[in-house]
Specification:
This protein is of the alpha+beta class. It is about 40% helix and about 25% strand. The protein has a three-stranded antiparallel β-sheet.
Length: about 120
Amino acid sequence: MSDRQFVLTLSCPDRPGIVAAVSTFLAHNGQNILDAAQFNDVETGHFFMRVVFTAADLAFSALAAPVLLPDRYGSPLPPPEAMPASPAREVQRLRAHPAGQFAQRMYATERGPTPDRRA
């Protein structure tokens, strides 16, 4: 799956933990760091950073969940069979698309052995 790339640039007064804070924030929000560079200007005491990142696969899967209604989502979702015909067909169509299949695989492999919690 091709991900769009984003570039974060920042400058701020230097202090310990900036790199850790940025990388942790990106990771916890489903981003994948592709490249990072940083330096400290000792004369001014400022820190500069440039990070190239993509929206990771899990982020896509999480965003797709409300229309795919995946197994192992973690909260009650109606099965397509319990929906009116038109929305149920749309869920099935989206599930059949390669991106929908990918997102469903991510839930199947990344959620672990949690029970199915459908309504």
